Amino acid sequence: MLEAARAGDHVLLAAATGAGKTLAGFLPSIAELMTTPAEGLHTLYISPLKALAVDVQRNLLEPIEEMGLDIRVETRSGDTPSNRKSRQRARPPQMLLTTPESLSLLLSYPEAATMFSGLKTIIVDEIHAFAKEKRGDLLCLAMARLQRLAPGLRRIGLSATIADPDAYRAWLAPDGVIDDVRLVEGEPGAVPDLSILVPEDRVPWSGHSGRYAAKQVMQLIEEHDASIIFTNTRSLAELIFQDLWKANDKQIPIGVHHGSLSREARRRVEAAMAEGRLKGLVATASLDMGLDWGNVDLVAQMGAPKGSSRFLQRVGRANHRLDEASRGMIVPGNRFEYLEARACLDAIDHGELDPDIFREGALDVLAQHVMGIACAGPFDEAELLDEVRSALPYSALTEETWRRVLELNATGGYALRAYDKYKRLVEDAPGKWRITRPAIAAAHRLNAGVIVDNTMMDLRFKNGRHIGRVEESFASTLTPGDAFFFSGISLEVEGFKEQDIIVRASKQVGRIVSYGGQRMSMSTHLAERVRGFLADRNSWQRFPEDVREWLDVQSQRSILPEPHELLVETFPHEGRHYMAVYAFEGWNAHQSLGMLVTKRMEAAGLKPLSWVATDYALATSSLEPVTDPQALFSPDILEDEFKSWIEESHLLKRAFREVAVIGGLVERQHPGKRKTGKQVSFSTDLIYDVLKKYEPDHLLMRAAWDDARARMTELGRLVRLVDRAADTMVHVAAERVTPMAVPLMMNIGREQAPGAATDEAILAQVEEELVAQAMRLD
Predict the structure, then answer these.
(1) Element (H or E) spanning 506, and its range?
(2) Of the candidates 87, 10, 102, 1, which has an alpha carbon nearest to the alpha carbon of residue 48?
C-alpha cells in the first residue's frame, strides 16, 4: 500500500477479514502526516454504516496516540451535533470518517471547494456494499466531484468478498479506466472451518429458518466463548432469539441485534459483546460488516445464506486472526436448503464467490446530486456533464437524458411546469445554472439521501373499521380482486386509498399472495450447483441418509431433471389440482412468474386458488387440472401481461413514491416537522396520477419502472426461466404428490392454516400425510 501511494496509484485492496485491511488503507495517510504534518482535510473514509465509522475511529486513535501524532480523527453522520458539523466545515480534521449521504451533504455547501481542495485520499470501505446500489451511485458521483476539486486525489477501495476485482477497479477508477487502479491482494489466511449442522433426527421437509435446531444451537453457544447467530430477516431474528431463550436452561446471557432496534439499544448490545458480557448474539445484516469482536469463535447461519460471498462475509466476523480458522456453520431449514448449503460450501472450497451485477446509474439519484452541486454554487452544464460521465455508472449518459434531468430540477417536467414549487433551478445564461432561491438549499439538505423508509399500510373495511396493518412490500403485490388470509379470515381487496387497503370478507378461498421464500434470492451459481446435485448421484454420498432417500424416491416416482431441463409436475390432491415448477431461479423470479402464470390460468378457465414461490420452485393449486403447462409459459408472457401486471399492482406507485422522494419532487421533512408516510404517499400519488395521464414518459416515471422491474423480478433470470420452458420443459403427470413437491405443499398449507392455536399440530399432521403419500413406491 505504501508503494502504491508513493507511485500515486489508486488501489483496490482485497484481503480476508481480520487481515488488517482497514488499517492498511489508512497507513499511507498516517505515513504522509507523520513526515509532512498539515492542517486541513487529508483523508476521507467512507463507511456503509455509521456504527462502523465509530468503530474505525476507536481503532485508529489507539495507534495514533501511541505514536504521539498530532492527527485529529473525527466522525460525521446524521447523529453528529450541528455545532460540530459547522466546525468541521470551517476547520475540518485531518481524517474524517463518514457515509455517502453525509459526504453528499458536505458537497452541497458553498465552502465545499475550500474544504476539499487539499484532500489527498478517499478510502471506500466494504466497497461491495456500495457499488451495485443507489448509495453507490451517490458515492460515485461524489467522488467525481471530489476529483474535480482535488485533481491529485487518490482512491482506495477495501473489500474481503469480491468475485470480479476488475469490475470494482473500473467502478473505483476516474472515468472507469481500469488500469489506473492497482489491485493489491492480501494473504488468504487460514482456511475457514465450515460445516452444516445435521439435525438430531432428520432434515426437515419444510420451513426455511432452522428454528427446529434451537436446542442444538443453544448447546453450541454454551460450548463457545462468543457466538453470532445470523438470520436473513429481522422478524426471524426476533423469533429465533425467543426459540433460543426457551432452550436456554442455564440462563446464558444472549441478545438480539437488528436495524429496527433503536440506536441506543444496538449500542448497548454491541458494548456487551465487546466486553464479553454476552455469549451469544442473534443478528441480521446489521452485523454483516465491521463491529469486530476478537472473542467470537463461532458464526452460525440460520437457514440458507443465499450466496457464498454473503456467508464468507458473515463467517469473517469470527476470530479476526489470519493464523486461526474462523468457524462457520449453516443450519438448513429444509431439504432443498440442505442442498443449497452444500452448494455454498463447495463454492467456497473452489474459490467461487457470488457474481457481481452492475447496472446503469439511477436517474433519481443523479437529479438529487445535481441539486446538491447547485446548492454549493452556480454550475456550467457542459462541465458538470463531463464530471458526471467520469463516474462509471453514468459514463453512457446521453445529452438528451442529461437535459431531462436539468429540466426536472428546473420545472418538475412538462406536466408540472405550471407549479412554482417545482422551480428549483434557473438558467441565467445559456448553460449556466443556479438555484432559484436560498430556501431551496435548506430544503435540499433536510431531504437529501437515497434511503427511503418502508411504510406500513392499514387494512380497512368500507365502513372504516380498522383490521390491522401489513408491510407495504406485501401490499405492493396485491391488485383488486386478490384474496389473502389475515387474522384467520379470507379478505378480498376492493381497492387502495392512500395508505389504506380496502377489503371485504370473502367466503371463498381466494388467491394467496405468498412470501414462501426470502426476499434475498439464491445466487445463480448456487442454483447451478443445486441443479447439478439432482442429476449427479455420485454427489449424494456426502448427503444425510434421509436426503439421499428423498432424492432416490423422487427419481422413481417422477424424474430428477438434468441441469438444463425445466421439470413441471402436475398431480391431484384432496380434490384440487397442483402444478409444481422446479426452476431454481430464485424467489424474485418465481414470485413474479407466479403472478403472471395464475393470471393465465384464470384466463384459461383453470380456476386457480393459490400459489407459493420459494427459491427453488413455484407451485399453484386450481380447481381444474393443468394438462398443457407449455401454454402457460409461452415467451409472450413477458410482454403485455408483464407490463399490465406491474401497472395494475401497487408496485409501480410504491416505486414512484421512492424515486419522487429521492429525485426531490416530494419533501419528507420541513424545519421542525417530518411528514408521515401517509402524507408522503398522498403527495406522490397525486403527482403519479398526473404524470401517468399527461406525461407517462416523465423522467421519474422511467426511473420508477426501472425500480419496479428490479424490485419484484430479477428480469434476466425470469427471461432465462421462460426461455428454458420453451425449449427444455419436461412434464410429468403424477398420480399423487411427489417427494420434491412436499416442501411446496407445506408452504401452501402454512399460508392457509386458519388458527394460530392449532396451527402447528395441523401442519404436522398434514406433513405426515403428505410424506406418506409422496414416499410410497406402489
Answers:
(1) none
(2) 102
Looking at the DSSP bridge assignments, the partners of residue 426 are 434
* Ranges of H-type helices in 448-561: 472-475, 524-535, 545-557
Would the CA dihedral through 8, 13, 19, 21 be positive or negative?
A: positive
CA distance 739 to 150: 63
pLDDT tens by residue, 172-183:
999 999 999 999
CB 1 within 8 A of CB 13: yes
The number of residues in the chain equals: 778
- Across-strand partners of 567? 582, 730
**DSSP letter (8 states) at residue 392:** G
Look up cell 509532512; give the residue: 36
Q: How many CB atoms lie within 10 A of CB 762?
A: 15
String of b and e for 432-461 (b: at least 16 CB within 10 Å)? ebebeeeebbebbbebbbbebeebebbbbe
pLDDT tens digits along 459-499: 788 888 776 666 666 677 788 888 775 534 577 889 888 77
Query: What CA–CA distance (Å, rounded) separates 724 from 203?
Result: 30
User: Order of strands across the sheet with 608-613?
Assistant: 608-613, 618-622, 576-582, 566-573, 729-733
**543's grid cell:** 448427503
Burial of 223 (0-12, 13-18, 19+ CB in 10 A): exposed
Q: Cell triple for residue 352? A: 467461487
Give me the residues paired with residue 156 across strands: 11, 123
| Predicted pLDDT of residue 456 | 60
Q: Are 752 and 763 in contact (CB under 8 A)?
A: no
Q: For residue 309, what are the contacts with CB-CB under 8 A and spacing of at least 6? A: 128, 161, 162, 163, 353, 354, 523
Q: How far apart are CA 83 and CA 496, in angstroms?
A: 44
User: If we measure between CA atoms, which residue out of 183, 177, 168, 179 comes closest to residue 147?
Assistant: 177
Look-up: residue for cell 368500507? Answer: 462
Q: What are phi and psi of 124, to 5 degrees?
A: -105, 105
Average pLDDT of the chain to the nearest whole number: 86
- Which is nearest to 467 in space by CA: 449, 443, 442, 484? 484
Cell of 426: 434557473
| Residues contacting 3, CB < 8 A, separation 6+ | none
Whether the Cβ atoms of residue 268 and residue 297 lie closer than 8 Å to each other: no
The strand order across the sheet containing 456-460 reads 466-471, 456-460, 500-505, 489-497, 483-486
CA 392 – CA 137 distance, rounded (Å) = 9
CA distance 473 to 452: 13
Q: Which of 155, 80, 95, 94 lies closest to 125 in space, CA to CA?
A: 155
Element (H, E) at 290: none
From the list 650, 16, 731, the residue with the least C-alpha distance to 318 is: 16
pLDDT tens digits for range 100-156: 999 999 999 999 999 999 999 999 998 988 888 899 999 999 999 999 999 999 999
Q: Do the strands 608-613 and 327-331 form a parallel or antiparallel pair, or are they unpaired?
A: unpaired
Cα 568 to Cα 337, 496, 707: the distances in Å are 20, 35, 31
pTM for this entry: 0.81
CA 283/CA 613 separation, integer angstroms: 25
Which three cell numbers, joined as nine digits, stand for 418?
Answer: 405550471
End-to-end CA distance of the chain: 67
